[in-house]
Amino acid sequence: MKNKRQAQILKIINEKDIETQEELAEELKKLGMNITQATISRDIKELRLVKVLTPSGIYKYAPLERSDNTTFDRLIRVFSESVISIEHTNNLIVIKTIAAGAQAAASAIDAMNWSEVLGCIAGDDTILVIVRDNSMVEEVLRRFSKMRG
Description:
The protein is about 50% helix and about 25% strand. By secondary structure, the chain is α+β, with helices and mostly antiparallel strands. The protein folds into 2 domains: about 1-45, Arc Repressor Mutant, subunit A (Orthogonal Bundle); about 80-149, Gyrase A, domain 2, CATH 3.30.1360.40. A 4-stranded antiparallel sheet has the order 3-4-6-5. A two-stranded antiparallel sheet has the order 1-2. The chain has 6 helices and 6 strands, in the order αααββαββαββα. The N and C termini lie far apart (about 45 Å).
C-alpha cells in the first residue's frame, strides 16, 4: 500500500504543480486513497520531496536528487532567499524563513550531510536544527552564513 501510494505521489507531482500537502491529499482522494496529513508528511520526507520555485513564480513539490547539481544549487539558492533570521541557544538553532520556505531550506541543510548536525525539523516557516554538541554550534552558524551569501 505504501509503495503504491508513494508511486502515485511521484506521478502526481510530476504531472501537476502541487503547492501544499492539502492539494496532494485531494489528488490522492480522487484516486480513492483517503490518508491523513501525517501520512502525507511522512511520505514527503521519505520521498525527499522539496518545494522548488517554478517559472510561473509558485512553489511546488519536486523530488530531491543528490546527484543532480542543478537541484542542489537550487536548494542552496532557496535557502539563501528564504531565510529571514537565525538564532541559537545551546545546541539548538532556530531558523525563520518566509512562509512555506522551511521545507526546502531544511532539505538544503539535510543535503549538506554535516556531521555536526544531528537533524532538523521543519514546519511551514521555522526550522529547528539540532547540533550534536554546543562546541560545534559556531561552525554550523558560520556555514549557514556562508550559504546565505
